[in-house]
Structures are given as C-alpha cells and as structure tokens.
Amino acid sequence: TAELPLEGRHVVITAGGTREPLDPVRFLGNRSSGKQGVALARAAAAAGARVHLVAAHMEVPAPADMEVTRVETALELRQAALQAAAGADVVIMAAAVADFRPAEAAGTKIKKRDDAADPVITLVRNPDILRELVTRRSEQEAGPELIVGFAAETGDAEADVLEYAQQKLERKGCDLLVLNQVGKDLVFGQDTTTVTILDRDGSEPATVSGSKDATAAAIIERIGSELKPR
Ligand code: C5P
User: Fold this and answer.
1) Torsion of CA 90, 96, 99, 103, to 10 degrees
2) What is the interface pTM, i.e. ipTM, of the complex?
3) Contacts of 111 (CB under 8 A, 6+ apart)
4) 130 C-alpha to ligand 1 centroid (Å)
5) 130 belongs to an annotated ligand binding site
6) Max Cα–Cα distance, the chain, nearest Å
7) What would the pLDDT profile of 71-87 be if each residue is shown by its tens digit?
8) 228 three-state secondary structure
9) 198 phi and psi, to 5 degrees?
10) Ligand 1 lined by 149 (C-beta under 6 Å)
11) Which ligand 1 atom lies nearest to the CA of residue 95?
C-alpha cells in the first residue's frame, strides 16, 4: 500500500482565537471559531502525521486523538508554539493571535463609579510568533522544514487582497501563506470558505472553495507536496 503523504511527520497547528485579559472577568477577543485549525489538524492526522494542536479559544471541541495544549493569551500561545515547533517538521499558524493586549490586566474587576472618569484601555503590541518562528529557524539553521502562515483580509478588491497577501508572505518570511477573505459573517464561524495558497516563489496562487474540511485537505495536500521526500 502507498505511504500516506505525511507519514512519519510531526505537525504543529495553532488554532482558535487568543483572549487578552482586561481584568479577572473580561477580555479582548476575536471571532475565530477554531474550525479551520481543527479541520487542518484532522486532515493532517488523516494524512498520517503526528499532530500537536495548540488551541486558543475555540467554539468546537479539540479532536480527542491527538496531543492538545490549551492556551488563553498570545504570550501563552507563543510559549507553547515555540516549544512544540522545536521538534516539528511543519508548523501551521492558523490561530487568530491578538496583535495587541491590554498593557495591564487589573487584579480585580474594573468597577464603574459615577464619580470616576471613564476608563481608558492602553494596548501594547504582542510579539509576532510567526515571524519569530521564521527568524529562529534561520538563526539556528534548524527547525521546521515548512512554516505556514494565515492571512485574514477583509473586503477590498480581489487584486488588492492578493497583493497584501504576497506582501505579508514576504514580511513574515514563511514558506506558504493561506489567504482567507473574512468579514463579520463571512468565514469566521462558518462551515464553508475560500482559501488561496501563496508561496515564496511567486507561483500562480491556488484557490480552493468548499467546506472547511475540503479546503483543509487541499492545504494539507499542498504541504505534503512541498516537503522533501525522504
Ligand atoms: O499580521 P497578521 O495578524 O495579519 O498575520 C496573520 C498570521 O500571523 C497568522 O498566521 C497568525 O497566526 C500569525 N500571527 C502571529 N503572531 C501574532 C499575530 C499573528 O504568529 N502576534
């Protein structure tokens, strides 16, 4: 029987959306459902990979038959992803990582007081984990053979979106970039999606539409074809 495309490979996938605490009961979050990341994790496992899912907040359960690390914040996701990536062949950054977090999380619930001024939330930048994975790989001359980023772009003309995505791919330095066009009711939480896969060689972008399972299978197949045979 033919060997599965990811047989013997170790694949790390981040999924879901981070939550950045404001106080013990409140957070800044995003609309990521984790569905695409979980679909990728299943597709990678079905392709024969050993999968480690680093899961931020998700609206869907994590698959039971794989290693799962639960995280809340971008900083926790960074730690888990960098650690997991150390022994991985492929890292797929499908998580929606908050670009900013509140500068301070209050130790107790922020109260509304009639005599006090309205609170102001100061944000600070989170580290870019995808860039860090790429930088570490080049500094250490070791690391995952393939690092895959995601881009969620809203609205705008098709050509502009592709142009942004190509620029993002170059800025991040990852090997493949999967572009998702998102809007309030588009893609996030939905079961169907359209993705476009871009690579660093500037090959013709490949667009796939369908269920998140079908697009995940297509992404995993492309990843399998990019890996050097061994
Ligand atoms: O810069 P932007 O958020 O659009 O990039 C999206 C890609 O970068 C995704 O693969 C996401 O997982 C990753 N990312 C990251 N660290 C951040 C923000 C995004 O790794 N702080």
Assistant:
1) -110
2) 0.98
3) none
4) 6
5) yes
6) 74
7) 999 999 999 999 999 99
8) coil
9) -115, 150
10) yes
11) 12
